[in-house]
Design brief:
CATH topology: Rossmann fold
Number of domains: 1
CATH class: Alpha Beta
Helix content: 40-55%
CATH superfamily: Vaccinia Virus protein VP39
Mean pLDDT: 96
Low-confidence stretches: none
Number of strands: 10
CATH architecture: 3-Layer(aba) Sandwich
């Protein structure tokens, strides 16, 4: 699933990469250190940013299945991955990439993850991964996903799961009101039922532990400054749209809040890794 533009995903990619929790990433790398190859399923793959940020943690031979509802984003992923690789060839619809000594086969698949996730996991997957995705899904989706991953005896790695923490610089009195309205909007139906929103990271850890997995989590916040001006401005606009749709804040307050020049922003995320004991 993805309802985001390629431009927005491009804008946030560098901030996402900086924010990833190094301890969780090290646990992922250590888990697969003795493997020669790995079969990876990437949910809500967008333009392939998660592959680009994760491949260096994984074995020398990798097969990735990138799944998104938006075929245009999958086309963009194909183009960006081709440019990112040191070398590439095609094998039918698949890409064969070489990057930093790794051989990576990429398969592109358009699917509705609200209905198709369990079937995709059942296809011999060894690692299920996603970035900036699970806060859009429901608690019931997370519960069923965990069961499917455990049934497949696969590992699980989710990054940039929004956790609700926000700080804006300079601070303004309406910040808390805007954040509360944004959280309400975030927990609306995004195609999976009522979204878990900022509770998604906790739900993921709980569900994997309930099913007998070891689960590790760590903070991965965006710490944005003046160098991230365009991303901050887009965040502000996105919050205003969401809050307007929520209807809990009057228009004058929203307009005043949007017009405050922001020099920095902190947006909280959580990374989660889970694997069989």
């Amino acid at each position: 699933m993805s309802d985001f533009s390629a431009e927005w995903l491009d804008l946030r990619e560098a901030a996402d990469r900086r924010a990833r929790n190094p301890q969780v990433a090290n646990a992922v790398s250590a888990r697969f250190a003795l493997r020669d190859e790995l079969n990876v399923l990437d949910l809500g793959s967008g333009t392939g940013a998660n592959l680009r940020a994760t491949a260096h943690l994984l074995p020398s031979r990798q097969t990735w299945t990138l799944v998104d509802r938006d075929a245009a984003l999958l086309d963009a992923a194909r183009t960006k991955l081709t440019r990112w690789a040191d070398a590439h060839t095609t094998d039918g619809d698949a890409l064969e990439l070489e990057k930093s000594g790794r051989k990576i086969r990429v398969i592109f698949k358009s699917a509705d993850l609200a209905h198709d996730t369990q079937a995709l996991i059942a296809e011999g997957v060894q690692l299920v991964t996603a970035s900036a995705f699970f806060d859009l899904t429901s608690e019931s989706y997370i519960r069923e996903l965990a069961k499917a991953v455990v049934s497949a005896k696969a590992a699980f790695y989710a990054t940039l799961v929004y956790n609700g923490l926000q700080k804006w610089t300079p601070h303004r009195p309406a910040d808390n009101q805007m954040t509360a309205a944004f959280q309400r909007h975030q927990m609306g139906d995004k195609g999976f039922g009522s979204a878990a929103g900022p509770l998604a990271g906790s739900h993921l850890v709980d569900q994997f532990r309930i099913n007998g997995y070891l689960a590790l989590s760590g903070e991965s916040p965006w710490r944005l400054d003046r160098a991230d001006r365009m991303l901050i401005e887009e965040l502000v606009r996105g919050h205003a749209v969401a809050v307007t749709e929520d209807g809990g804040v009057d228009e004058k307050t929203i307009v005043t809040w949007v017009n405050v020049p922001r020099s920095a922003a902190f947006v909280g995320h959580t990374d989660v890794f889970a694997a069989p004991q």
